[in-house]
Amino acid sequence: RQTHQTLRPPVRNVEQPRLGLNGINSQGNGYQITSVSPNSPAARAGLEVGDKVVELAGKRVNAAHEISAILLELAQNGHSSAEMNVDNVRARSQSPSERFVRVNVSF
After folding, report:
1. Using CA atoms, how far apart are residues 61 and 53, in angstroms rounded to an integer?
2. pTM for the complete prediction?
3. By the 8 A CB rule, do 86 and 26 touch?
């Protein structure tokens, strides 16, 4: 009698990484930052109130739970940083292509 086993990579038991930001869902237009904790990964990356996180680690985001899920997956796979695509509120007067910045966030 044969038994079949499904092999899965080991899942690392890690704490939920935190970026140190709060925000609101932006109805398909990213996650708008409403506060940034001092000395947090988000603050060290230069994120500010009003910025919108639109992509994290190559995945579109619109809500806090999406950001949390991506961060947890990255941490479980041994990553401690990720690239983030941000709609930069300070550059609103510039052309749309210059408003988006990529930041590397360590968590």
Report:
1. 7
2. 0.75
3. no
pLDDT tens-digit series, residues 72-106: 999 889 888 888 888 876 665 565 555 666 777 77
CA dist., res. 12 & res. 15, Å (int): 10
What's the token pair of residue 49?
Answer: 């109130």
| Cβ count near 106 (within 10 Å) | 12
Q: Give the three-state DSSP class for 81.
A: strand
Tell me if 28 sits within 8 A of 12, measured CB to CB: no
For 6-60, the DSSP string reads ---PPPP--PPP--SEEEEE-TTS-EEEEEE-TTSHHHHTT--TT-EEEEETTEE
Nearest CA among 11, 7, 16, 103 for reference residue 56: 103
